[in-house]
From TrEMBL:
PANTHER family: 5,10-METHYLENETETRAHYDROMETHANOPTERIN REDUCTASE (PTHR43244:SF1), PTHR43244. The keyword Heme does not apply. It comes from Streptomyces hiroshimensis. It comes from the Bacteria. Residues 7-291 form the Luciferase-like domain. CDD domains: Tetrahydromethanopterin_reductase. InterPro entries: F420-G6PD/mer (IPR050564), F420_G6P_DH-rel (IPR019945), Luciferase-like_dom (IPR011251), Luciferase-like_sf (IPR036661). This is LLM class F420-dependent oxidoreductase. Keywords: Oxidoreductase. NCBIfam families: F420_G6P_family.
Length: 321
């Protein structure tokens, strides 16, 4: 049976609200939760972007059952890998073993803020691979001195080491990232229901490991209002990863998605309150081979009715998949 997750979308709610939302998700019966890690929202209409790690620390204390996960953190530019390792170890301890560390090669949207420029995709993958090596060593309790192609680490050690270490997930979008994830990850992460990504992950060593997808949805009893909100806040979603990873700020995403129509959004994102439409969208992931699917309810101010509906109708329907 597929595991259904809840997304704390940091781009659309403030920190206190995000913690309240994940508490509600735990009460509603979601199997796990994930958290985006952004410095900028995708579009200004989303309106937020608090620090994900501070939110995770609070969520770890406010909840008792639901697993937590970054979806995803870029450990290469805005954060140094040794800082990510310390943050992950701390959240794993605070949550008493409920944390998974999701990593990815990042987006210019969030990483440009430290003024180091934005390298090409092949360099970003090199940086991610080196960062994972450093993070794993630190989470294993090692004393690390490392002078590599992209990072220097001098006499680093974590003094509060969780047992077990949090599993590491890696986000994939193509052959190269699938090879990296197959070799290095405990979990694979994707935002599209593409079977070929999972097949490539398996080919490179990922067979038998969990695979997590993510799906935006927009529940509302008013179908038209749901479509309008999804268009206002999530029309960037269909631009594709090669575009999404390169655009530098929310204004660029607004320009790039200006021609996306409401009909196109309604076709790509389940909107309204028809449970069957939501189930079919999740089914695309299960049929591709995903074992877990994290849902993103669009609209920070529309979480409470969604969580109530999910508990009563959506989650029971999804349990049949």
């Amino acid at each position: 049976m597929v595991r259904i997750g809840y997304t704390m979308m940091t781009e659309q709610a403030g920190p206190r609200e995000l913690v309240a939302h994940v508490v509600g998700a735990e009460e509603a019966g979601f199997d796990f939760s994930v958290t985006s890690d952004h410095y900028f929202p995708w579009l200004a209409a989303q309106g937020h972007s608090p620090n994900a790690w501070a939110v995770l620390g609070a969520a770890a204390q406010a909840t008792s059952r639901i697993p937590l996960m970054t979806f995803v953190t870029c450990p290469t530019t805005r954060y140094h890998p040794v800082v990510v390792a310390q943050q992950a170890a701390t959240v794993q301890l605070l949550s008493q073993g409920r944390f998974r560390l999701g990593l990815g090669s990042g987006e210019n949207l969030n990483e440009h803020v430290v003024g180091r420029g934005w390298p090409g995709v092949s360099v970003r993958h090199e940086m991610l691979e080196e960062a994972v090596f450093i993070i794993r060593a630190l989470l294993d309790g090692e004393l690390v001195t490392h002078h590599g192609t992209h990072y220097d680490v001098e006499h680093a050690k974590l003094w509060d080491v969780p047992e077990p270490a949090p599993p590491i997930g890696i986000a994939v979008s193509g052959e190269h990232s699938c090879r990296l994830a197959g070799h290095l990850a405990d979990v694979v992460i994707a935002t599209e229901p593409r079977r070929e990504l999972l097949e490539a992950f398996d080919h490179h060593g990922g067979a038998g490991k969990p695979r997590i997808g993510q799906l935006p949805v927009c529940y509302d009893t008013d179908h038209g209002a749901a479509v309008e909100r999804a268009h206002e806040q999530f029309r960037w979603f269909g631009l594709g990863w090669p575009v999404n990873s390169e655009l530098p700020h929310d204004g660029a995403f607004a320009s790039a998605s200006a021609s996306v129509t409401r009909d196109e959004v309604a076709k790509a994102i389940p909107c309204g309150s028809n449970v069957d439409r939501f189930v079919e969208a999740v089914r695309a992931y299960t049929e591709a081979g995903f074992t877990e699917v994290a849902l993103v309810q669009i609209g920070g101010d529309h979480q409470a009715p969604y969580l109530d509906w999910a508990k009563r109708e959506l989650l029971p329907a999804l349990r049949t998949l």
